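Fold this sequence, please.
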Amino acid sequence: MSDKGKTEKSTTKKTEPKTDGRSDKKDDGKSDKKKDSKKETPVVVPSPNFDLDKYAAMYEGHTKVSRLLFIAERYQGKQLYSFKLAADALKQGKNTGAYRKLYETLGDKLVKEFGAAYKFEQPWADQLDKAFMVEMEELENALQNYKTNLLREQQRVCNNKIAELHFFSGDFNGAFRAYMRTVENCTTKQHNLDLSQFVIRTSIQMGNFAHVPNYVSKAEDPSGGLLPLLRENPDLAAEFKVALGLAHLENSRYASVADKLSEVAFESAEKLRHIVSVDDIAVYTGLCALAEYNRPALKILYDDSNFQTFLEHTPRVKAMLNSFYTSDFAQCLSILETFKNDLQLDIHMHDHIGYLYEKIRNKALKEYFIPYGSVDLQKMATAFQTNVPDLEKEISKLILSGWINARIDSYNQRLVKREIPLRARTFQKTITSGEEFENNSRAAILRVNLITNNMTVKPAKFEGRGQGNVVLGMPGMGMPMGMGGPMGGPMGAKGRF
């Protein structure tokens, strides 16, 4: 029993930051492509306002460690300092596997940089591993006893304890398997709600969001019976909304991300540091809404009192949304650029920054042009802080994709709205109306001729059966289905002409 627990602990502990499952989504079965993508980790230099200590303080638990390790891979200027903060966070938990691997990777670099306080503590790690093995063996023996005596509730509680032990030690796969073993022993609605919470929380740490929408929908389904319990626990409801928002982000459903995260109550968001921070919710919602929402929807979001509380904690997001809505696109895009690199260090958002920024810029170009029939490209280039040749390339792509209905007058350096002339539009409308009138007239004439020649379907009455089904035929051949014709032959299922 102890050997089994030791094998699971040594093989399933995770020490590297999660990749959000994006490699699974984009996997085409080519391992070489995966290896290349891992080697091409970009080097990021964040904005001067990026404070690593303040950033790390916004999170706790496994999330704090995974985010710091992710930053260390990309932020070379503060790589060792990121590892130092990660080591501090690991010492506060029980994830000895991640702690050991961190020091296996770094060697004595932390000691040389930060002193003897960051020397690898072998006794501490061994003591935690020993305690893990002892507790796991006790739980496994107890579980076997409960199975023998068919004690379902005790089995559920014991499996939950085993899963919790795996979870805090960083073995998320082992925790997930243990939680799933409790499914058949969940006999109450509260048990099912607890299971949903545990599975969702573990899935987020695994970086695998495939199960999240299913369990959130079960909890929020009015017919499932869990919704009243969920309403009694607003913090858990907020956690489910955040989890579903991250799942939508994983699947690039940006409008759904903004919809779901904007529903999170600020008071509950402050208690979700084991998943996201308050700033994350504001940034994710703001960027996704800016890329996908139309102006009325954007205004509704901006005026929402709950979301305003989030914006007070993130002034840059507030200024960005306000400048876009007031058509100050240069200011909006300038603000976006100030923290673009900071978002490259975000473990959930980094893969989506390129698309979202491009979508927001394209949307701004379209919004700028909508009120006008013709725009000076030089003034437009100034407004978007670019030059005319580059602006023409951008607009050409938007015209070809159908995003902007216009043409570029390169000689006069103007962007001209492409409209169908009023006269041509009137002629087209007239022709369409004439064709419609002709079709209606032909149909009316055909109906009159059918009635005149007695080629219509006539109801027939049968004794004891009411009205039968009648087929279309020549004069004198209107008859019920299956009846004989005037020549005496059977008609079968269909009539003859």
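The first helix runs from residue 2 to 12. Residues 1-38, 463-497 have pLDDT under 50 and may be disordered.
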